[in-house]
Specification:
Length: 151
Amino acid sequence: MGLLFDFYAGRGRELGEAYQELDFDRLEDLSRGHADLSLHISPRDLDLLSEQAFRIVGKEAVGVFDSFAQNVGRTDAGSADVMNPQWVAVLAEFPETQIEQLTDEWMESVRQESGETLEVTPEARKAVSALVAVCRIARQQGLDVVFTWSP
C-alpha cells in the first residue's frame, strides 16, 4: 500500500483537529467534499498533477507541496495542511472539459519522469475530477481545502 493522499473542503482548524486525533469519521462528517488521491503514487507524482493543471490553464507550474498555507494538524507519520487559496482558485476554475486531458497529461508526465508505463485508469480520472470538485466547493462556500497525507 502506498501513501494516503486526501483533500477535504471544510474549516481548516476543525479538519486538522480531527486528523490529528485520527478521528476519520469526524473528518468525513466535517468535510463538505472529499477527493481521495491514494492511487499508489508518490509525493512527486502528486506535484506533477498540480504542475500539469497549472500549465494547461497557462499558469506557472506549482506543486502541491509548495502550496501549503498553514499546518493545522500533525500525527507521528503525517500532516494536515490548508492549501494556499491561489492554488485552490486555479483548480476550482479548471475547465471540466479538460479534466480528461489533465489526467492523460499527468500520467504521461509521471511515465516520463519515472520510466514506468502507466495506464490512465477510471480511478485516476475520478480522483482528478473529485479534486477539482473539492476546490470548487471550497471556493463557492468560502471554505478551506485541507490536504492530508500519511503512510
